[in-house]
Prior knowledge:
Low-confidence stretches: none
Oligomer: single chain
Strand order of the largest sheet: 1-3-6-5-4
Mean pLDDT: 95
Number of helices: 17
Shape: globular
Largest sheet: 5 strands, mixed
Radius of gyration: 22 Å
Amino acid sequence: MTEKTALxxxxxxxxxxxxxxxxxxxxxxxxxxxEMIGALAAGELDLLSLWGEPGTVHAAVLDGGRVAVLSxxxxxxxxxxxxxxxxxxIRFERALADLYGLVAKDAKDTRPWLDHGRWxxxxxxxxxxxxxxxxxxxxxxxxxxxxxxxxxxGPVHAGIIEPGHFRFTANGETVARLEVRLxxxxxxxxxxxxxxxxxxxxxxxxxxxxxxxxAYAIAFARAxxxxxxxxxxxxxxxxxxxxxxxxxxxxxxxxxxxxxxDASFSIMHAHCAVLRESLLRFADTHFGHRLMMGxxxxxGVGVDLxxxxxxxxxxxxxxxxxxxxxLTELYDNAASLLDRTVGTGLLKxxxxxxxxxxxxxxxxxxxxxxxxxxxxxxPYDRLGFAVPTLSEGDVxxxxxxxxxxxxxxxxxxxxIVAQLPDGNPLTALPTPGSVAEGLAVVEGFRGEVLVWLxxxxxxxxxxxxxxxxxxxxWPLLEAAIEGNIVADFPLCNKSFNCSYSGHDL
Length: 505
């Protein structure tokens, strides 16, 4: 008899909610919640996300190729802290306290996270929000030692980039600690989602993080389709994958060039920008928007691809392959560039595993996970592709993962166009008639995007939670920069390329 896993035990002890589709949701008691915490701390489960609604806290956990949501009712507004034993949960818990007033008992860090003391109300998503009040200056963590000094950077930066504050504590040029403060791009997405019809909610989801438009839109659409018990047409699945791979390619080209530019190797930046621009122009011409906003909708896709579009994309992919191979060789033979990237910004494999780091951040540090393969959804369950991994965990490794993923995406585009089925790419959406829930996990260019959705009987959104891969990657950037010089921070930061907007929501 096969031994039961931690997730098996938790699901057997809990009460499955039949309203949720896609992945199961199980209501557990306090003892079950504590057992989940123990399994996370022991590495038997990975934490994908932690979120709430008034009176309830939810945790999405991963066990190999299985995902489940565990829910705990907390009528007194308190729940046993996950972060007290499993560090990846700490910032989720701080956000829960800010938004819902849900308190993690025995939490190690109770500082505000999203609430900077400028909101008109406290706990805005709770049943009974409190009046807002100004907060004391943010207490950054102390660092003890001689000859230390601090360097504050941001939240306003010297370029057109998103806002975030970086507090460096350094000994000379060596970074002893980096602490990141976020929340400046908070838009209240969860609150804005409430009461939206599916079209309005899908529009919001697709605008959460502009560089991941397609990934968010697919995740939201799949969560909605799961809740409604429908399946998008076959052509829609293949078109979604085509757009997702174009989005992945465009971002990887942009990142590779930007990393090289931060090491003063601007020629790579220029050539990669040309490749990225060619993809964005194709997207604009054939999907109606450079970032393909609005193209993926619940029920399928709203913009079809003409036959000549497929032929043009194949020609573009072939052209990019040849030029990108030359750029890869240029990168690999630039000794001055490799001197900056090799050995810089090391992320230890054990940290990547503990934080369930997705995408190129995790795969460059040995975590072999890709939702397209490990939580397969159409059409990736019918496609063959390599998932590259490395164990070095430095800036160079994160560049090479992007290179190999770009090569795989170019091959996937050719395969998708060759197999693209005919038919209508959009189906009508039914009204659920009763409360319905859905969960979806989709691989974006940074890693997996998670969307949990509850629909009311009228088909409008009752609650929605979106989780960006950056939520579990930002803390790892703080770890990776320690021991490096301050001047190497731009390289490390860009090699992670975490989203501010996707994190702050």
